[in-house]
Every structure is written in C-alpha cells, then in structure tokens.
Design brief:
The complex is a heterodimer of chains A (487) and B (501). Chain A has helices at 50-59, 73-78, 103-106, 115-120, 123-136, 149-154, 158-173, 192-213, 241-250, 265-268, 286-296, 308-322, 325-353, 365-376, 391-400, 413-423, 432-440, 458-474, 477-482; strands at 22-24, 66-70, 89-90, 92-94, 97-98, 109-110, 143-147, 179-182, 228-234, 254-260, 276-279, 300-302, 357-362, 380-386, 406-409, 427-430, 445-447. Helix content of chain A is 45%, strand content 15%. Chain A is globular and about 70 Å long. Chain B is built from 20 helices and 17 strands. With 501 residues, chain B is α/β, with parallel strands linked by helices. Chain B has helices spanning 12-17, 66-74, 89-102, 115-120, 123-137, 148-153, 157-172, 176-179, 194-209, 228-240, 275-279, 296-306, 319-333, 339-359, 370-382, 397-409, 422-431, 444-450, 474-493, 496-499; strands at residues 10-11, 31-32, 36-37, 58-59, 80-85, 109-110, 141-146, 181-185, 219-222, 245-247, 286-289, 309-312, 363-368, 386-392, 415-418, 436-439, 454-456. In chain B, the strands form four sheets. Chain B has a five-stranded parallel β-sheet with strand order 15-14-13-16-17, with helices on both faces. Chain B has a four-stranded parallel β-sheet with strand order 6-5-7-8, sandwiched between helices. Classes of the chains: A alpha/beta (487), B alpha/beta (501). Chains A and B meet through helix 1, helix 2, strand 3, strand 4 and strand 5 of A and helix 1, strand 3, strand 4, helix 2 and helix 3 of B. Strand 6 of chain A pairs antiparallel with strand 4 (58-59) of chain B, so a sheet runs across the interface.
C-alpha cells in the first residue's frame, strides 16, 4: 500500500527515500516499512552504534564480571553508568564497605588505545590490561572484552588474547574463569540492533565452548527441577525484575538465570540447563533463544510483561507449556490477586487518561509491547516510531494497533518535530535525547528507555507507568506555557 | 505497612504480597534491595598496580574523546550543526551526554558509517550527508568533525569537502558558498581528550573564518568548557566595565534556552556566536583564552597571524585569578574598574571573612578538567583549605605548573595526579584523611564510599539540576562556590547546635 499524500512529511520532500520507511498499520494484512537498512547520512538519525547495542544494552547488565573496552578512553567513558540497568551485585569499595553503585555501572575499564597502538597494534596492551584489571578488581567472576571501531579497524586478534588471559588466570587460581570477546565495532551494521545480534551469537558460542572445556560449570543433574526457567531479554531497568521474578516463583517456577539483567556469570553459563526460556525482549534476544533451542532443545515462549492482559498471558503460557494443572491454577489465582491489588489505583488513572493522545518512539519492541498497554489505559496512540526494529517487530505493531496508525522506521529529529506538530499528542513516550526536544514544543514526555520512576513491568509496575504518564500530562507547568500572560 | 519497612523501604517479597497497591504506586525508591557482594570476602587490590604509571589498564578515565570537545565548541555557534564523520555512536553518545548535563536538545548530524565506509572510505557519506543536512536544516555553519574511524581509514576530508562544495553549487547555486560556512576539525579520538578537541576546534574556527578588517576595539573571549552560567558571568563583568566583546562558542544561548511556544521547525536555539563575530576576531584588541588548554592555541594563532594580543589563562575563578583577569582587561582596553565590580569583589571578601573558621585547615581533594581543577585548587588555598590530592583527567603542563605555584604560595604540598585515572585518585581518598571533595558527577560514588562530602563543580555534572546555570567564575561565582563549600562542610561536619550561633 502506498503512503497517502497527507502522511508524506514535508521535511522529507528532499530525501524521498525516507517515505519507504513510513506506513499505515493494518491488523489483518500488515504493512511493513523499509527497515533494518542503512541510515541516510546527514538525516539527523537518533540511532546508535553496534557497540552501544552489545556493551550498552545486552552485555552491560551482567553483574559480576570485568567488562573491558578495547578502545580509546572515549567509548569506555560513554557507556559508564548510563542506562539504569540495575543489579544487586556490588564490588568491594574497601574492607567492610560495598561500592555505592552496582558493579555493572560502577566503573569504566579500558585499554585507552593511543596513536602508537593504532600503528603497532594493541594486543599486548589488551593482555596486560586484562591481567591488571583482574588484580585490581579482585573477586570478579570473569572478563568480557569488547572491541570498538578502533580495535576493529586495526585488526587485533582479541580471541587469541582472551585465551591466553583465561589460561594464565585459571592456572594461577585453579578455578574456571571465562574470558569472552564480543567483537562488535560501532560501524558494523545499521544500528545498535547489530550489536544485540553480535552479543547473542558470540556469547552463545563462547558459553558452549566454555561448558565443554569446564563441565563443572554446568548444572548437575541432581540440582535440576522440573520447572527451571530462564528469563531471556530482560535488563532489569529500574528493577523491573522485582516485579517479574516473584510472579514466576509464585506459580512454582525456579528461575535459573536472567539474560542478562543483573545476573552472575555462573548462572548465565547454566542457561542451557533449564527447561524453558521465557523471552521478553524479542528484538535483542531472539537470537540466543533460537540458538539454545537448536543446540540444547530448550524451547522458548514469547511474552510481554507490560500491562494486565499481556502479563496474564505470559503466566498462562508458561503454565500451559509445563502442562501442570496445579501451575495453571496457581497462575489463575496469582492473576486474580494481582488484578485485585491494582484495580483501585488503575481505575483512578484510567479515568484521568481516557481519550488522551500518545505518540510513541522507542527502540523497537516496546512500541508493540505498549500498544495494548495504552489501550488498557484508554489512551489513543497517534503515531509509533522505532529506532532499530525489524520486519517482525513491525508485523507485531500492525497486529496490535488499530487500523491506520502512522508508523515510522528509524525516524530522524526533523520527522519527530513534524509529527509532534502534526498529531499534537498529549504525551510523547521517548528517550533521553528526544525528550528535551519534545519539551521545547511544550509536549510532556516519559522516559521510555530508563523510565522516570520505575519499575514499569507486570501488574504492580503498571501503576508506576500509569502514574508517570498521568504526572506527565497533568503537571501544572504546561498551563504556564499555554497561558502566557505577558503575550 | 509501616511496620514492614526496612530503613523506610519494603523488600521485594513484601511489595509483592501487598493486597492493594496505593494510587501513587510503589517505585524504585521504596524497594529495599539487599546488596550482594561480588565475592564473599573482601580481597585487597594489588597495591603495586594502583598508580596509573605502573599499569596499562585505565580504570575510570577522567576524560572523554576529542570529538566531544569539538562538538561542544560547535554547538556554541549560532545555527551551527556539527557533522560527525564516523559511526552513529560517535554522535549519539555525545548527544546523550550533552542532554544529560544541560537538559536541552542538541542537534548533531552523523555520516552514519556502516561497514562499506570502512572499505571504501567515507566520501559518499560526507557528500550526501552535507547535502541532506543543508537541504533540510539550512545551517549557517557546519563543522565537520573526524573520529577514530575516519582518521584510521584515512578519509581525505579537505579533498572530499572540495568535491562536496562543487556538488552543492550545482544543486543550490553559487550563493550556497555565502550561506553555509564549513570548518573541518581533525579529532582522532586515540589522541588527546575532549579538552584538546575543544582547543583544536577553537583554532580551526578562527583559522578558517577570521579575516583582517579594520580594528573593532573588542576583546575576544574563548571561554573553554565552562557552564552557560559562567559565560553569563564573564559577560556581566565585561558589560560592567563597558567593554565590547566577542564571545566564542557561546553556549549560554544554545545550551540553556527558554521554553516558549510556538517554536520554529526545525528547532534552533536563539543564541550562539554569529559567524560574523568569528570573522571579526582577527580585528580585536586582545584574545582572552580563559582556559589555557581549551582555546590557548587559537589565541596564539590570532597573535601570530593577526597580532591580536593573547592572554592565556588562568580561569578567573577565585579572588587572585579574577583580579588578574579584571586588571588585564582594564590594562588592555584602558577602561577603569567600576565601583560595582569592586563591590562584587568586596562581597566575596566579606563572605570569606565570615566563613574562614569553617574552611581553614580542611583537607580537600580536587578532580576535573585541567584548568578548572587548577583554578579551584588556588581558590581552596585562598579559603585556607589544604589541597591534598589534585587531579586533572587530561594531562596538562600548565595544570601541573599552576597547581604547584598556587600551593607553593600557601605552603602546601599536594599529590598531583596529572592525566592518570580516577582509580588512583580514589585510592588516595580512601586511604588518607580528606574532608571535602571538589569534583564532577563521576566523583559521587567515591564520595559516598569514602564518606567524604562532595561539592559539584566542572564537567560533567548530570546528577543534580541547575549547576549548569550557575556561575563559578568571577567574584559573584566565587561567592556561589564559597557558599556551596561552606554549606557542604556544615551539612557534613557540624552538629546543628554549633551552626545556629
């Protein structure tokens, strides 16, 4: 279906190739925009790089290892304590005192590549840096090395270095010490999505190899339970896991590992030993779920933990998978209790938010996760945008949205401005960079990446989400913009 | 619910068993999370490796990359959009950082390097990118900023730009050359830091744009990476003294903007230095590079090429440095120091006289960019405080010299960390008596872990609001910083019955 003339944004008249990235939704015959392709140079994209996807998103939340960035200091600085991917694991600040921030956000560790390394190579430097970091941050469970544009372009053989470092440390301690490499330079691929993919595939391969060479890290038969699950693709934004994990424990599941929110490496190595993977972020972590399914015959279920209907479905689907009558009954009981606990608060927000218009711009999956959530709040989605979504994400948006929703792939700054003016939403769900732009046009925002005051997941988190949306729309400040008494 | 709470918070289990969620919800600040140690027992780090000179690994660098400094400079120019010749992260990460600090939108374009650029070079990306940017945004200036990848690939930026300009002329007509100015800034990130990136941008801008005309009787100010509040304070001093000026990279009009609707599309901040002003910098009486490492080379260039008198540092923060700045201004312009300014100085001195019992003898650790760190060190000396561990995240000769000189004058002998990392500086604080830290948001964890209070100053402060709007420089800025320092000491060290006298 070609885009109706009135949806062809004015700002793109001079780069008409952008129109291929815009469609109107159709729930029965999905319209998929051009997506997961190269960005138009100079179009003011909001996209990040593959390194941001591998280190920032998927690898960053791992709780107890040294994450060393093989790069000039800049790349390491930029990913230092940014996303609110929280973890309960803290390194020692000094004797008797734990650090102030969880280990995954506390430090920036880098080889700080200099001009001479670019000329002569940085492998020796990387090796020394790994060993030194291990001696300076004792107690870390392993090392993950990330490459960036610089180390990628100079062609350092980081895998060879990793093997040497692993051998030396294991020889000294006599304990398993994984040293993995995630090779995902910033200029690889079209967006941060490539980095998610790289992390999944490379982590999987190295995890499998490590389990082979160190069988003691696998879960022993006697430790296994019939209802062992992993939560795949949740990064514990603002402690979402505080609401996700207990739901599954209440219905009788045991969570082996979370990939990767705040998790310990030793648990991540046991992922293939579970019975089922419960997959939340289906953009960044379907890859590893597919690999585990193929390699270890562990199936996965796609779920969403946002809003009532989807969280209930997640619990029902997991119970159904195990085919246990008892678990299904427990799930129904939990769902009933949870709905009862949030109904009074939710009713308050539904009343306040009924009919409000919302524009949405997030990375990918949240845009379809949240279509139903907005519907549950009685709000109308007036446009949806994704930074790095693929065909399957857009198909899901089509299926979940009302017919004729305006969808843009990889929107740029100007398109966002024009959509805000054109659709005049009462609220814009977006990220940190774009929220300040929206506010300059007088439009309230809720940070949809790291949240405002989360957790937003599951039933109880839904109230926080609704509250932040309500506070966004009803903040007194907006009336001072509209009623400018000075003229 | 009250009796369930641990330190005013609820455990995950308790929250999940509540029968009803209150209307306000239960969010992160109410959840009690039990901290788990990374390993059961404390293991000390290897002492031999703590000094940064004894190792290759860098832990917690106090510096970012050169392109960031060049972008900072560029966003201080009116209707200027930086075009970053690299991967998308090289733009998105800095934009994120600017937004975090200034809480403002920042427009920066990217060449969007993907694999093909690594193989074939970034020529196509630049030519197409500039065309698209100009068509839609009509900027008056575009600074073309290189990064690691474009420098390693060996992109011939000057050659590419000539080609791009030819194509632009074909599409937009010859007048495009008057409408848009281009400035190329080479900033390979594997050398220098954001400090040198800003310095290189300053030099590139004046080299490319400044032109000899008739004398303008103005002074040039190259502020360095100080806050919008600082820049306004410098302007205030100049205006009090009735001195005409050109403020280069004036972020006070671009990174601290009012919310007023309706806005124009595309959004451009109202302020920033005009191209015309940069051209005119060749005709000024003098150039004050307030931060030697962030603008010094541009001041030196203007001297060499156009005989504009350079005054390079120190940053006018504290009494001595501000006196020096004001006296030099007066000397070079022939304008007397007005009464109002003498009163502002007097108010700072008055505030110092009122508070020295709180500040004297306090041991202070300082971290930041070289020029701010050095100036803050001297101000601490002026308050009778003892600098014990002074760090510049970027290596700088002028920093070491200035810290040494200030401390010699006041008979102190601090440990100077010049261009190392925050890990070694942190170790000093955890092992020695320190009463106060002056530093940026990256010192928060150290402050909490060592239980030493923190005064926020310098780049970057992103975990509190309003600091970017405040001035630390000048006499009034000195009074603000003094109050921050004293109030922080009072909060941390003085029981309430000692304060209410």
């Amino acid at each position: 279906m070609s885009l109706p003339e009135k949806y062809k944004l004015k700002c793109d008249r001079v780069i008409p190739q952008r129109y291929k990235h815009m469609v109107l939704s159709n729930p029965t015959e999905p319209n998929i925009p051009a997506c997961n392709t190269r960005t138009v140079p100079g179009d003011m994209t909001e996209r990040g790089c593959a390194f941001a996807g591998s280190r920032g998103v998927v690898g960053g939340p791992i709780g107890d290892c040294i994450q060393i960035i093989h790069s000039p200091a800049g790349c390491a600085w930029y990913q230092w304590g940014t996303r609110r991917n929280l973890s309960p694991i803290y390194a020692w600040a000094k004797e008797g005192v734990l650090c102030n921030d969880s280990h995954n956000r506390r430090r920036a560790i880098t080889t700080d590549l200099q001009e001479r390394d670019v000329v002569f190579g940085g492998m020796q430097k990387l090796k020394d840096a790994c060993i030194e970091a291990w001696k300076l941050i004792p107690g870390a469970a392993g090392i993950i090395i990330y490459t960036t544009c610089t180390s990628g372009l100079i062609g350092d053989d980081c895998n060879a270095v990793a093997k040497e470092v692993q051998r030396e440390i294991e020889n000294e301690t006599g304990k398993p010490f994984p040293v993995f490499v995630i090779d995902s330079p910033g200029l690889c691929g079209v967006s941060q999505s490539t980095g998610h993919h790289h992390f999944n595939v490379q982590f999987y391969e190295q995890m499998v190899a490590f389990r082979k060479s160190h069988p003691e890290v696998c879960m022993k038969e006697e430790e296994k339970t019939p209802y062992d699950i992993n939560i795949i693709g949740d990064f514990n934004m603002d402690w979402d896991l505080a609401y996700i994990k207990p739901l599954f424990e209440k219905i009788g599941c045991r969570i082996v590992a979370v990939f990767t929110g705040g998790e310990r490496l030793k648990n991540l190595l046991k992922i293939p030993d579970a019975k089922l993977n419960v997959l939340h972020c289906q953009r960044s972590c379907t890859y590893i779920s597919d690999l585990i399914k193929k390699g270890f015959e562990v199936p996965y279920v796609n779920v969403s933990f946002f809003g009532i209907e989807q969280t209930a479905k997640a619990l029902r689907d997991v119970a159904k998978f195990f085919g246990s009558k008892e678990m299904e009954e427990k799930a129904e009981k939990v769902i009933e209790e949870e709905i009862k606990a949030i109904t009074p608060a939710l009713n308050f927000y539904k009343e306040k938010l009924k009919g409000k218009k919302v524009g949405m711009y997030v990375g990918g999956p949240r845009v379809w996760h949240w279509q139903k959530v907005m519907h549950e709040l009685g709000m109308e989605v007036v446009f949806s945008m994704c930074t790095f979504a693929h065909e399957d994400d857009y198909e899901k948006i089509n299926r979940r949205a009302k017919e004729g929703l305006f969808i843009i792939d990889n929107p740029n700054e100007f398109e966002i401005e024009e959509c805000l003016e054109k659709f005049k939403p009462d609220l814009f769900l977006t990220g940190l960079k774009e929220k300040y732009l929206a506010r300059k046009f007088g439009i309230p925002t809720v940070n949809s990446h790291s949240y405002e005051k989360g957790p937003y997941a599951c039933f109880r988190g839904f109230i926080n989400f609704a509250r932040d949306i309500y506070q966004g729309i009803y903040a007194p400040v907006w009336k001072f913009i509209r009623d400018d008494v000075l003229g | 619910m009250e009796d369930l709470k641990i330190n005013g918070r609820l455990t995950i289990e308790q929250i999940n068993s509540l029968k009803e969620i209150p209307i306000e919800g239960i969010n992160y600040e109410q959840i009690y999370i039990e901290k788990e140690p990374i390993c059961p027992q404390y293991i000390p780090p290897d002492e031999d490796l703590i000094p940064s000179s004894k190792r290759t690994v860098v832990i917690d660098p106090g510096r970012i990359c050169m392109p960031f400094g060049a972008m900072w400079a560029s966003v201080g120019i009116h209707k200027c959009i930086p075009f970053v010749q690299g991967a998308q992260g090289c733009t998105t990460y800095p934009r994120y950082t600017f937004s975090r600090i200034f809480r403002e939108p920042v427009a920066i374009a990217t060449a969007s390097f993907h694999e093909d650029a690594a193989v074939f070079g970034g020529r196509k990306n630049l030519i197409q990118g500039l065309r698209n940017l100009i068509y839609r945004y009509r900027p008056e200036v575009i600074s073309i900023i290189t990064v690691c990848s474009s420098e390693i690939i060996g992109d011939d930026m000057e050659g590419f730009l000539i080609e791009a300009k030819e194509e632009l002329e074909e599409e937009f007509g010859p007048e495009i050359h008057d409408q848009v100015k281009f400035v190329i800034v080479h900033t390979p990130s594997f050398a220098g830091s954001h400090v040198s990136g800003y310095d290189r941008a300053a030099k590139a801008f004046v080299q490319t744009l400044a032109k000899k005309r008739s004398p303008n009787n103005k002074v040039n100010i190259i502020p360095g990476m100080i806050t919008p509040g600082d820049i306004r304070e410098i302007k205030h001093i100049l205006e009090l003294m009735n001195i005409d000026y050109i403020m280069l990279f004036d972020i006070s009009g671009t990174l601290d903007c009012p919310l007023r609707v309706p806005q124009q599309m595309p959004y451009y901040p109202k302020g920033g230095t005009k191209v015309e002003e940069i051209i005119d910098m060749a005709n000024s009486v003098a150039t004050f590079a307030l931060c030697p490492d962030e603008g010094g080379s541009a001041a030196a260039y203007l001297k060499k090429r156009y005989e504009v008198e350079p005054v390079i540092g120190p940053l006018p923060l504290g009494i001595h440095n501000t006196d020096k700045f004001v006296k030099k201004l007066s000397e070079l312009t022939g304008k007397p120091v007005p009464e109002e300014l003498k009163d502002e100085r007097g108010i700072l001195v008055d505030a110092m006289a009122d508070t020295f019992h709180y500040t004297m003898g306090r041991k202070v650790a300082i971290v930041g960019d070289p020029d701010i760190s050095a100036a803050a060190t001297r101000f601490c000396c002026e308050l009778g405080m003892e600098p014990v561990a002074v760090m510049s995240g970027t290596f700088s000769k002028s920093f070491a010299k200035e810290v040494w000189n200030a401390c010699q004058e006041y008979n102190y002998n601090p440990t100077i960390f010049n261009g190392g990392d925050m890990f070694e500086w942190e170790d000093y604080i955890k092992k020695n008596r320190v009463d106060l830290i002056l530093g940026n948001s990256k010192a928060v964890n150290i402050s909490k872990e060592a239980n030493v209070p923190l005064v926020r100053i310098g780049f970057p402060v992103y975990d509190r609001v309003g600091y970017q709007r405040r001035a630390y420089v000048g006499y009034r800025g000195g009074e603000f910083l003094l109050s921050l320092i004293v109030n922080t000491i009072l909060d941390a060290k003085f029981p309430d019955d000692r304060v209410h006298q």
